[in-house]
Design brief:
- The complex is a heterodimer of chains A (about 100) and B (about 475).
- Chain A is α+β, with helices and mostly antiparallel strands and about 100 residues long.
- Chain A has two helices and five strands; from the N terminus they run αββαβββ.
- Chain B contains six helices and 24 strands.
- Chain B is elongated, with a radius of gyration of 42 Å.
- Classes of the chains: A alpha+beta (about 100), B mainly beta (about 475).
């Protein structure tokens, strides 16, 4: 049972990573500790810490404007690439994509 | 009647003896106990404390192999679809195709920042023969001389430097003027030390000036020896030598000689360390050009320009009066087929490869830092600038796919522009020297200096097309 769950998780992540232009993926748990990553250690920790704060702020912004609303997706487009953040109550999925490739 | 009388003896004490006995009295005194306290002071002990920012302590990544966190799978299942949708949409989106945001203000036009002139050079009608930025990007050095003179001239000329970052910049008066006995034909600033400038003269000498010395700024010079050039030196360049941090000076003249000098500071002279001669018989033939090449019967290949390749420290490129572009290597060992004239170092033939010849003299070439085989501007891979004889400087942008120049810098006067130099530290600045003795510093517009996202790949495409 644990084995199949494990492979499902890995498969899902592999599917996401196989998309065009994806540079890396990071999965972060509730405490902000990255649990799965395809990037190197220091970059991962940096992304996880910073994006968690940003996602929390974005969510509180959305809820302040309308308390019945909630944040579903966060996209940050920069000169070099785009960062997609999918926040949930317990986990955070960060995907970094280079859209012009 | 008579009786015995016994008398007591009488003793008389000796006064003398008493006086000899010194009165002895013993007295003693003693101070009270001295309070003593010991304390030591020593300045020797020190403690050192250093602080240094360190990268954040890396938290352990819980990469669990067998154990799964509860809910991870469910989370991923929920999240996968929206994420994939967004990824696909991003890959197909054209929303940001031409969108380029920059925080700085847009400079849409090319504008002239400064117009520098040196009064005494202008009075004598000298042309600006060469300009060079120094390594920090703030000082521009200009060499004056004549280009159109065919004869040997003994006219004095000068090298002027202006520091553009100073507030007290006076465009009519140079910050530093170095007087030189003959016309200066080539100039190059040292790539690491901001005070050294190397120059080549019309008489064939090569000099290095040290602008930080207030007295005689000439640091070393070659003088007229059997080793040096006999013809005007057209280009001078600093070359990194084997020892890290040391630089030598490479000079090229119109007699076809390319000489490499090392600076000997103790004796304040140049030491010739390598010499190369370009002789037409020894140039390699490229396919299709051998017939036209043999028709030119000149005995030497006059070198007008030189460039070092940033990719390969062994190669350098040479452009000649006849329109040839050669790639040469420093370490070639074949000796040159030239009668020896008493030089101390044997000449070598360095040419390794011949590019397609052009029809006019090649006045200047620069190696592109972006691609091995093309020559361009330092910051944008697709932009290069050409100075024309009519006085305009045309800047071409290959990304626009048209033959017309992307921007043209008008002279203001109609004097031909003779030399150009991009500033490596501040890629917006371009210095243009003209025959009326003035140097213009231009600030290039925004789109000419910022690198767009696809430029490297476009450059690759163009390079591949040309190679075919």
């Amino acid at each position: 049972m644990a084995g199949t769950e494990h492979t499902n998780v890995e498969d899902t992540l592999k599917r996401i990573e196989a998309h065009k232009g994806v540079i890396g993926t990071i999965v972060v748990n509730t405490e902000g500790i990255p649990i799965r990553t395809t990037l190197d250690n220091s970059t991962t920790v940096q992304y996880a810490g910073l994006l968690r704060h940003l996602a929390m702020m974005a969510r509180s912004t959305v809820r302040d404007i309308d308390p019945q609303n909630d944040l579903t997706f966060l996209r940050i487009r920069s000169k070099k690439h785009e960062i997609l953040v999918a926040p949930e109550n317990d986990f955070l999925l960060i995907v970094i994509q280079n859209p012009s490739e | 009647m008579f009786t015995d009388e016994a008398l007591d003896s009488v003793s008389v004490q000796s006064q003398w003896r008493i006086s000899q006995q010194s009165a002895q009295e013993s007295r003693s005194c003693q101070t009270r106990a001295v309070h003593r306290a010991e304390a030591e002071v020593q300045a020797g002990s020190s403690s050192t404390c250093c602080t240094q920012t360190e990268t954040q302590p890396q938290e352990e990544l819980h990469l669990q192999d067998g154990l799964e966190l509860p809910g991870l799978r469910d989370f991923l299942q929920r999240v996968e679809d929206p994420v994939v949708r967004e990824l696909v949409r991003n890959a197909r989106s054209h929303a940001f195709d031409e969108f380029q945001v920059n925080g700085e203000d847009h400079r849409q036009r090319v504008s002239c920042l400064h117009f520098l002139q040196h009064s005494s050079a202008q009075e004598r009608g000298l042309h600006v023969t060469s300009v060079s930025w120094n390594c920090t990007g703030s000082v521009i050095a200009c060499a004056y001389g004549r280009i159109d003179d065919g004869d040997w001239s003994t006219e004095r000329s000068c090298v002027c430097t202006w520091n553009l970052d100073r507030r007290s910049l006076n465009p009519k008066q140079a910050d530093l003027v170095i007087h030189v006995p003959t016309a200066v034909t080539a100039l190059c600033c040292h790539p690491e030390q901001p005070a050294l400038i190397a120059g080549g003269l019309y008489s064939g000498e090569v000099l290095v000036w040290d602008t930080s010395r207030t007295q005689d700024p000439v640091l070393v010079q070659t003088g007229m020896s059997a080793d040096s050039h006999r013809e005007p030196v057209y280009t001078v360049a600093w070359v990194p030598l084997q020892k890290k941090g040391e630089f030598g000076v490479l000079s090229a003249g119109s007699a076809g000689r390319v000489l490499l000098w090392t600076v000997d500071l103790e004796e304040a002279r140049f030491v010739l360390s390598a010499a190369y001669a370009l002789v037409p018989q020894q140039l390699p033939h490229s396919s299709g050009s051998s017939s036209s090449f043999k028709a030119r019967g000149s005995s030497t290949v006059g070198v007008t320009s030189l460039a070092l390749s940033p990719w390969d420290p062994d190669t350098f490129l040479v452009g000649s009066e006849g329109g040839l572009l050669l790639r040469c290597s420093f370490s070639s060992q074949t000796p040159a087929a030239v009668p020896p004239e008493g030089q101390s170092v044997t000449l070598r033939a360095p040419a390794v490869f011949l590019f397609k010849p052009r029809s006019g003299p090649v006045h200047s070439i620069h190696c592109s830092p972006f691609h091995r085989n093309l020559f361009w501007s330092p910051s944008r891979p697709l932009v290069f600038a050409a100075a024309t004889g009519q006085g305009e400087v045309q800047i071409f942008d290959l990304g626009r796919r048209s033959l017309r120049p992307a921007a043209t810098i008008e002279g203001g006067t109609d004097q031909p522009a003779t030399c150009l130099s991009f500033n490596h530290r501040n890629p917006h600045l371009l210095a243009v020297g003209r025959t009326d003795g003035s140097v213009g510093i231009w600030q290039l517009s925004h789109d000419l200096t910022e690198q767009g996202p696809r430029e490297s790949s476009q450059l690759e495409q163009i390079a591949n097309q040309v190679a075919e």
